[in-house]
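Late entry, sulfoquinovose-uridine-C1,5'-diphosphate complex.
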Amino acid sequence: MRVFIAGIDGYLGWPLAIHLSASGHEVAGADLLLRRQWVAEVGGISAQPIASREDRLSAFEERFGKAIDFRVGDLMDYDFVKEFFKDFQPEAVVHLGQMPSAPYSMIDQAHCVGTQENNVINNLNILWAIKEAVPDAHLVKLGTMGEYGTPNIDIPEGFFEVEFRGRRDRLPFPRQAGSWYHQSKVHDSHNTHFATKIWDIRATDIMQGVVFGTQIEEMGDDLRLRTRLDFDQCFGTAINRFCCQAIIGHPLTLFGRGMQKRGFLPLLDSMACLRLAVENPPGPGEFRVFNQFENAYSVTELANMVKAVASEIGLEVTINHYDNPRTELEEHYYQPDRQHLINLGYQPTRDTRSVLRQMMLDLQDNRERIEAHAHVLIPDIRWDSSRRRSEIIG
Ligand code: USQ
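Prediction complete; structure with ligand written out below:
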């Protein structure tokens, strides 16, 4: 299939280009390289060195024997998106090209508005470009499990049956996002759903959990094919941060009581799930929602797992509680469904501990890079806007 990846230079976009190409698909993509700028803006750096766009493209061609059409361009520029779709004629469009950080969206008014403007408008551009250039293409839109928040009931996959005053209906499950970033994804879900109704577009909205991992097998030994791995307070996600902290002997930073539960997913499983969604498109006008995660853990369970795996490779790890910079429930019910991808054939590829082990072995080579940027580990972006560094509370 011809698959277009919006956000092809990112943490997920680059490995997806490799994974889909290795599975026989033809890939093209666009990226404005903004993720590289955003991470630099907050003082971060990828723990694994990443190659320039040009070196990535050479390495890709050497490995797969074909060039990849990776254009630097802005998804906010409608003509750029539409012309690219007209040229490439994608059968599927995977939209990963958005600002992905909750803390970054909470910095101030400009970051909040910038996040929503970028994410909501670029998704609208992609919907319009599909309608006008490739109306039969399937949009695989990356959303987030965080759209649902943490309700005190089970979380279905997008829709649920409700009975109210004696009448029944199948309705979108309530979204109660916990950051301006997560809210932007809620708006995208609503806009995408509406577009499927009025234009008969095919769409899959992926409610993805927190991803962790340094590489996928298809990258082989060529370091130029590696993806980024961030550990700063904005772009580093929980497990990736914990692994980097373990490598340099920094205490693992549990926010608050550490009983927050989330769905987590290794990078290689995220790739496998996105491929399954691409290879099994819905019908015209169908709006599917997939909850995409492997396991739900509390942050404390994760920290303990990282500590146990780290000790197997000779690293001593301590765990500290920091006052929570976020406004979120620190202890709550969490029971999301995840049947749709299993129905399509998804099977978890590796157990969490073996992925953690591989991550720490990969990251050991980059200890000095992490140490040199250790100041980005302690958060000072707070949801209540008083900017002060979190302190150890236990
Ligand atoms: N947390 C800690 N310590 C840390 C970092 C995080 O205790 O050092 C806690 C947070 O308080 C939160 C949980 O871990 O309760 C998850 O935080 P995170 O930073 O790993 O994930 P989040 O901000 O929710 O966002 C990430 C990605 C985002 C994606 C989302 C999926 O950045 O793009 O949409 O995971 S989900 O969390 O399911 O909404």
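The longest strand covers residues 138-144. Will revisit in the morning.
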